[in-house]
Design brief:
It is a single chain. β31 (466-471) and β32 form a beta hairpin. The protein has helices spanning 13-21, 29-35, 142-146, 497-500, and strands at residues 51-62, 65-73, 83-89, 95-102, 109-117, 133-140, 153-160, 168-169, 184-192, 197-204, 207-213, 220-226, 234-243, 250-258, 268-276, 281-282, 289-290, 298-302, 312-316, 331-332, 339-346, 349-356, 371-372, 379-382, 388-394, 402-407, 413-419, 424-428, 444-446, 456-463, 466-471, 476-481, 490-495, 504-509. It is mainly beta and 515 residues long. The strands form seven sheets. Strands 23-34-25-30-31-32 form a six-stranded antiparallel beta sheet, with no helix packed on it. A six-stranded antiparallel beta sheet has the order 24-33-26-27-28-29. The chain has a five-stranded mixed beta sheet with strand order 4-3-2-1-20, with no helix packed on it. Bound molecules: beta-D-fructofuranose.
């Protein structure tokens, strides 16, 4: 977000008292359980127990645990002095909340960053037997910002030798001093085998900069990458090696989150596909694509050290246009579903596909759907889909518009569909519940034109306050949040009768994670 526009809340007194009273946000176990019964609480997405959350940070796998750190303000429900919140999971679906991992200090707030496992102890911060987890993050000095300096964002490190439960900040921080760029943040680090160096990519206003290091402490500038003439604010980059599924070509994907130019307004995650030689990333700068066309997937980055080499990613399921105004009371924001990214080559070039991670199947009662059609005409298909996964496939593209309409008893509806004329998917949340908190929220949002035409597929995950569409085998994705007065419990197929007769629809009821 444009940092200068951040606002602070007046803290609700009762939340402050709760925060002060115990180690983990002050919540007793029973209260925690109650928290997840609140109105609009996601039931199978991650949301913090209480208070404000934005970007996922430090995603990594280590000794059987997936770690999720996140931008967190533990004393309010709008953005404030940033800490790193922390949760762990064995499957990226069921999460255990842990105490705040990294606190602000005299160098500033703890902004976004990443975590690596320093297996060979090149940093010397642990031992070979007990490799340190090293967090690399931005120190954002609010005082410097207030005084009008431009060098108030610097990169620092901290390490943990107890599986991320506690971190010690490096005494030589910052490890990269600001070179005179006002927006200079969000370092994402990975080990680069070929050059035997750590590689860092970070956002530097309207481009990314690459650095390399042997020990995570001393960094050398390598190169930068941007779009000539582009002045949009870039944030939260990630540079990932990917083997193309259908051609075996090795490519590098640069993920980058971009302010205020998203296909449906505000903020969204984009990507470039190119090559990287250990110092320089090369891609046709005009080849920028959107990872997700929905309004609510920002700061999406990948997990490091994943044991089975999948590329696993997570995003913040909101949009800076209204994130601080959404009508939730004790907490604000959830993460997207965890996704597996794969690269595919087609006539138009390379394209990233996203799929919900296989682990999400554990939320189903069985592999067999709760409903398998049989459906051969438009109309009601399911009446208990509050938490659900729905798949719809057809051997060919629909001949006219086609949609799944979710609705409740309060005359609210959320429509996820395909617009034949535009050859695009859409999500219509204009009548999907409360939207008076921001004029930018309600609306009918389209994806880009579909790159491949057939067969036709939609996979939709519906939670109490969000919908995620993985269209055309995940090549076109839309993530959107919504705030119905009651969860959508019924689903209807809206399409031409001829198309309906060719649709294969399956619905799985999903279990809550927060029990
Ligand atoms: C992206 C972002 C990052 C920054 C963090 C601050 O949402 O603006 O660039 O590090 O949020 O909370």
């Amino acid at each position: 977000m444009a940092i200068c526009t951040f606002t602070r809340s007046i803290l609700p007194l009762f939340l402050l008292l709760l925060t002060a009273s115990s180690g983990l946000n002050g919540q007793s176990d029973s209260l925690r359980l109650e928290n997840y019964k609140e109105k609009h609480r996601p039931q199978f997405h991650f949301s913090p127990l209480a208070h404000w959350m934005n970007d996922p940070n430090g995603l990594c796998w280590f000794e059987g645990e997936y770690h999720m750190f996140y931008q967190y303000y533990p004393a309010g429900t709008v953005w404030g002095p940033m800490h790193w919140g922390h949760a762990v999971s064995s499957d990226m679906v069921h999460w255990k909340h842990l105490p705040v991992a990294i606190y602000p200090d005299s160098l500033g707030y703890i902004f976004s960053g990443s975590v690596v496992i320093d297996k060979a102890n090149r940093s010397g911060l642990g031992t070979k037997e007990q490799p340190p987890m090293v967090a690399v993050f931005t120190h954002h000095d609010p005082q410097g910002e207030k005084e009008g300096q431009i060098t108030f964002q610097n990169q620092s490190i901290a390490w943990s030798s107890d599986k991320g439960r506690t971190f010690t900040k490096f005494s030589g921080n910052p490890v990269i001093k600001n070179p005179g760029i006002r927006d200079f943040r969000d370092p994402k680090v990975r080990w680069h085998e070929e050059s035997n160096r750590w590689i860092m990519v970070l956002a530097a206003y309207d481009q990314v900069m690459l650095y390399s290091s042997a020990d995570l402490k001393k960094w050398e500038f390598c190169s930068s990458f941007g779009i000539p003439g582009d002045t949009r604010l870039w944030e939260c980059p990630d540079l990932v090696p990917v083997t193309t599924r259908n051609s075996d070509e090795k490519k590098w994907v640069l993920l980058v989150s971009i302010q205020n130019s998203a296909p449906n307004g505000g903020t969204a995650t984009a990507y470039f596909v190119g090559d990287f030689d250990g110092r320089t990333f090369k891609s046709d700068p005009t080849s920028q694509q959107w990872l997700d066309y929905g309004a609510d997937n920002y700061a999406m980055v990948t997990w490091s050290n994943v044991p089975d080499d999948r590329i696993l990613a997570l995003g913040w399921m909101s949009n800076w246009q209204y994130a601080q105004q959404v009508p939730t009371e004790q907490w604000r924001s959830a993460m997207t579903l965890p996704r597996e990214l794969t690269l595919h080559k087609n006539d138009g070039g390379f394209r990233l596909h996203s799929a919900p991670v296989a682990e999400l199947r554990t939320l189903q009662n069985s592999d067999a759907p709760d409903l398998a059609t049989g459906i051969n005409k438009p109309g009601l298909i399911y009446s208990d889909c509050t938490l659900s996964r729905l798949t719809l496939t057809m051997p060919m593209m629909p001949t006219t518009d086609l949609a799944i309409r979710y609705f409740n008893d309060d005359n609210q509806e959320l429509i996820v569909g395909y617009d034949r004329q535009k050859n695009a998917f859409y999500v219509d949340r204009s009548k999907a519940g409360q939207h008076d908190f921001s004029p930018k929220f309600a609306g009918l949002h389209y994806s880009g034109q579909l790159p491949e035409s057939f067969p036709f597929s939609m996979e939709i995950f519906l939670d109490h306050a969000s919908v995620e569409l993985f269209g055309q085998q995940g090549s076109t994705v839309m993530t959107e949040i919504c705030f119905p007065s009651k969860p959508f419990s019924k689903a209807e197929l809206v399409c031409h009768p001829e198309d309906a007769s060719k649709c294969d629809v399956k619905v799985w009821r999903l279990n809550r994670v927060w029990k």
